[in-house]
Amino acid sequence: MAASPSASGSLNASGISSRRSEEIADLIDLFSRTQYRAKEVTPRVERIEKRCLELFGRDYKYSVIHNTNGEICGHYPRQIVFLEYESTDHNKYRFESTVQIGKLQDLVNRSKMARCRGRFVCPVILYCGKHICRSSTLAGWGELYGRTGYNYIFSGGADDTVAESEEVPEEDSAVRNGDSQLFDKVRGLDIKLLRYLSVRYICDLMVENKKVKFGLNVTSSEKVDKAQRYADFTLLSVPYPGCEFFKDYKDRDYTAEGLVFNWNQDFVDAPLTIPASFTKNLNIDWSEYQSWDLVQQTQNYLKLLLHIINSDDESGLLVHCISGWDRTPLFVSLLRLSLWADGAVHASLEPAEILYLTIAYDWFLFGHMLPDRLIKGEEIFFFCFNFLKHIVSENFSSVRRQRRKNSQFKDCELTVEDLCLMKPIHRGSVSSLSSDFSLITEDTVAACSFTSEPTDPLSSGTPGLPAWRKARTSSPQMVVWNKAPPGEDRPLPPITVAETRSSSSSSSNQSEQGFSRTGSSPLAVPGRGCPGPSERQARLEAVREVFLAAYSSTVGLKSAAPSPSGAISGLLEQFARGVGLRGTNAIV
């Protein structure tokens, strides 16, 4: 007897789901065995490259930056995707790119030497017309002159066989004796590329100001550039533990709660430094960052990055660590998945498809060394996708922020939370901090009465060039938190502005300001078609479920010691059965 149409459809959907889960398992299996190199591509890798292009093409018009044999960078994709605009007609006219791919390719070729290992500034996510980019940190003197010598310069950086420990250290004295002209040239090209991509914000995840080996500097960073070449950019120092710290995560049976980084280590010298304008609306006590566990730190940094890309200007964001292949893909992947869960990027992709794309493109094709990390137990890759359970709430929703920013509020509809999310209309000097940390300022209240044309919830705001590109201005007022001195458990307070603590609950904030709210549900606002919190949670949990099932069937997890409760094996078995896969690797 023939199956009924409904039964046939159900079987077909089940088959597609199973096939896509197996596709991800196959991807992770390959990824766990080899590090991608552009000059050593197999048919299996070619299929992954082709699949990524197909998934990008579902929602975007894109061009390709050619890196065919790794001429530009040996551990970047051979076909680097430059997203121009979303493929719907509406978004084409709103966000069509002014970037010419030929000029972009030229700038990339000329600027690659400015950054460690040739890992140049590369756009990877397009959100509301803004480019979210990734890279490594700035190259030092030794990187430019001696890392691999003649072969590195004339092979286009494709030779990546030299180990990190063999880098030639930066000679500060040589720089002072005339080599600053070289830095002017190569970093000037790097800056030109950043500006061409309309990037204004640079988030540096390094816990050090410069990478030091054997007592000497090997790489540098924008935040310590002596010539202040990056002064026109908004630089954020957001120190985040390197991949070595995730050995502790694995040894604690993959438990991030309660796991706190040791900020008193000698090499840790980069304080948390954030513009004051980004610290006041997130209800986060940034002075406590050294006491946060891995969950809190990752959550708060992701909130910060989402806050930056939802700012009112049209500027893009660069995220980088040292080499740009551990911490960098962690946050790039979390950003991509968080925005996808809101329906803001890759809108047509299903959970298994967005998971495939971010693993293949953000991690594998950008050179993450998963085989090496697995051997060492540094499971930052697993942490990324297991962490999705911690960002399911609407507190991480970009749509919620965009919706409030673009809506026509009436005075009676405003809550304190709404006011805090609205950008104040600043008067006077940008360096004035007299009211920067007030929960509700006079300017903010004045902004309540503004009216504007209804816009799409994902609108990027005012058209035209960002203000920072029209004239050279000083850097915004920054808040700096120092490293705690040895022997002290708590960090020092901010050294440039007075510490401000928000009240413990939104209800107390409202009562202090004389506002009241009926009920605990969020106030209804225009844009009811946007995905709500429940949909966001369902989408992220679906991605995590597929990932855990595929990971358990390929790599598997290994406890530092047998767990009496069998928590790890039980968890993975549950997910494996849920998506039709059965773990084949022993979990010990």
Structural write-up:
The structure is a single chain. This protein has 588 residues and is of the alpha/beta class. The strands form four sheets. It has a five-stranded mixed sheet, sandwiched between helices. Helices cover 39% and strands 10% of the residues. The protein contains 21 helices and eleven strands. The chain is globular and about 60 Å long. The longest helix has 27 residues. Helix 1 packs across helix 20 and helix 11 runs antiparallel to helix 12. A hairpin with a 2-residue loop joins strand 6 and strand 7.
Task: Give the helices and strands, then pairings.
Blueprint: H1 5-31, H2 43-57, E1 60-66, E2 79-86, H3 89-95, H4 101-111, E3 122-127, E4 130-135, H5 141-145, H6 149-154, H7 172-196, E5 199-204, E6 211-213, E7 216-219, E8 234-237, H8 246-251, E9 272-275, H9 276-279, H10 294-309, E10 316-320, H11 327-341, H12 351-364, H13 370-376, H14 380-386, H15 398-406, H16 416-421, H17 442-446, H18 467-470, E11 478-481, H19 506-513, H20 533-554, H21 567-578
Parallel strand pairs: 4-10, 5-8, 5-10
Antiparallel strand pairs: 1-2, 3-4, 6-7, 9-11
Helix pairs in contact: 1-12, 1-20, 2-12, 4-7, 11-12, 11-14, 12-20, 20-21
